[in-house]
Amino acid sequence: MNKQSPKFVIADPSKVEKVDNGIKRQILGYGPDLMAVKVWFEEGAVGYEHDHLHSQVAYVESGEFEAKIDGETKLLRAGDSFYVEPNQLHGAVCKKAGVLIDIFNPVREDFLDGEE
């Protein structure tokens, strides 16, 4: 498995993958201890509650999201962000179509299946 992305990552539609109903993503760049991912959500799409061993910061590039972290829910709009500690239950519902930029530490190796 690649442990690092190319130095320059070009926005290539062929690299965008469908993740779930109304959700698609593109890996922007990564190394062993950091990963950035762009995630597009259609209105009403649900990022179901889950947890993982990674620290995560999500930046709302556009749209509106109802984010839930450890039982607390907030409505977030463009320019807002949230932080998720490792192993903390979290999810989001897209209220207005938009984009999240997710940053993970360490790299989400589970996202790299098929990246080689």
Instruction: Based on the coordinates given, report the CATH architecture of one domain.
Output: Sandwich
Number of strands: 8
Share in β-strands: over 45%
CATH superfamily of one domain: Jelly Rolls
Query: Would you tell me which CATH topology of one domain applies?
Result: Jelly Rolls
Q: What is the molecular shape?
A: globular
Q: Oligomeric status of the shown chains?
A: single chain
Query: How does the major sheet shape up?
Result: 8 strands, antiparallel
Please state the average pLDDT score.
94
Radius of gyration: 14 Å
Number of helices: 0
Report the helical percentage. Answer: under 10%
**Computed structural class:** mainly beta
Q: Could you name the CATH class of one domain? A: Mainly Beta
Write the element-wise H/E pattern from the N-terminal end onward: EEEEEEEE
Terminal Cα separation, in Å? 6 Å
Low-confidence stretches: none
Provide an overview of this structure:
- The protein contains no helices and eight strands.
- The chain has 116 residues and is mainly β.
- It has a domain of 66 residues: Sandwich (Jelly Rolls), CATH 2.60.120.
- Strands 1, 2, 3, 4, 5, 6, 7 and 8 form an eight-stranded antiparallel sheet that branches.
- The radius of gyration is 14 Å and the shape is globular.
- The model has no long low-confidence stretch (mean pLDDT 94).
Kindly list the characteristics that best describe this protein:
single chain, 116 residues, Jelly Rolls
Summarize the structure.
It is built from no helices and eight strands. With 116 residues, it is mainly beta.
